[in-house]
Specification:
single chain; 505 residues; alpha+beta; Nucleotidyltransferase, domain 5; 2 domains; 17 helices; 24 strands; 40% helix
Amino acid sequence: MKRYLLGIDVGTTGVKALLVDSTGRVVAGSIERHEMRTPRPLWVEQEPEDWWKGAVASIWTVMRKAKVDSEQIVGVGLTGQMHGLVLLDSEGKVLRPCILWNDQRSAPQCDAMTERIGKERLIALTGNVLLPGFTAPKIEWVRQNEPKVFRRARRLLLPKDFIRFKLTGEYKSDVADASGTLLMDVKNRRWSDEMIEELRIPYEWLPEVTESVEVSASVSVKGSRSTGLKERTPVVGGAGDQAAQAVGSGTVRDGMTSITIGTSGVVFAASERYAFERDGRLHAFCHAVPGRWHLMGVMLSAGGSLKWLSDTFGKSSYDRLTSDASKVPAGSEGLIFLPYLSGERTPHPDPHARGVLLGLSHRHTRAHITRSVIEGVTFGLRDMLELVRACDIKASEVRASGGGAKSKLWLQVLADTFDCGVAKLRVDQGAAYGGALLAGVGVDMFGSVDEACDRCVRVASHVRPGKDAKVYERYYERFRALYPLLREEFAALSALEDAHRNGAR
């Protein structure tokens, strides 16, 4: 009997299910879309039950597509968007919509908590600074703004762990995903007693954490009835989407670096030692590989910037947009885009930052704007890569994945801007693929994460820097100069926006 692994990814735009066989071949995939809600500027929420509906539908679809019996699925790996706050009551019912990773409402809580605890102590305890995207300040926001919800809360889960709860009835998480809560002692791979005490969070709210490859639960009778999966099918710890994506791209050994261009943009560097960037501008998290860590930079609107362009200026396919943009010369004829549409995290942790198009003239067309968006996002990624390089991690070649890596133009812009080779993967199925490989390790289909990656992950092509590398070096310097010049104006505009909104009430 053939054996298969199931990876489930609770993404920002949809829930993806992926069936993978023992050779790493993708047998079937399905995605069920869901919506983000923005009830106020800089607020971003989703309904957890929508994720569960999407997971159920996508699981049934891949089993039907592949004509696979539930007996053949031997392990499930979970992954998903990080940092989201799901609060449950004593009966396991969702108390409010999930506050997502790109929600910026908790900036005041971050400032107050950082002042109370101290930035240096925060970095010493967690390897990170407090940012609105993380889970801890979201909890404090609920305490201050929704006290009735806070008093009823009994459990705290991350997005993928809500699916585990629905599938197995267990409250569990993993060290990689939990690193992004800012409640973890990342160095020692456990919850931080000091942070939990400082933030006055009930310890019993927190799920037990395991390593990403450990079997943490199994499919319950109720979960089996909903999904068609066999009862007692093992479910491994899994990982947050970025660590799982790194496994899916083979970025698991010391010094290996990857770039992911999805809704957000991520630079990810694996490390065999625990390390952190001294100013906390990079995230220091546990890797999904036991005994390893990673440094990571995150920009909040990478592919999301291109989606904004398409949605706002006439719906068009990404292939059409990038095809038109490829006819525009490097530098977009003097047009520079700052991709801070949702504020920013790395290297500028600023919820007030905004998107900017600088240099517009009558000559510029939508194709110019499209190319400037691609270039601006790539310049932001280089900001993060420079921080990684400053931590003595050499990135002579990076592995690119995500929707942006499907574009030949974007791959070439990456290689030219980074001035190093960029590798495209043969199979790029995102975090769900990494989740499936983690499940394979957990059920002993593979002896280790390294072995799983060696057997299953292949590079399809390499892109080398071309003639535009020198052009981009000059434009990158202009890009880097803009945020410091505009930082105070961003804050002033945000204050005006708040004053107008409060006055309108």
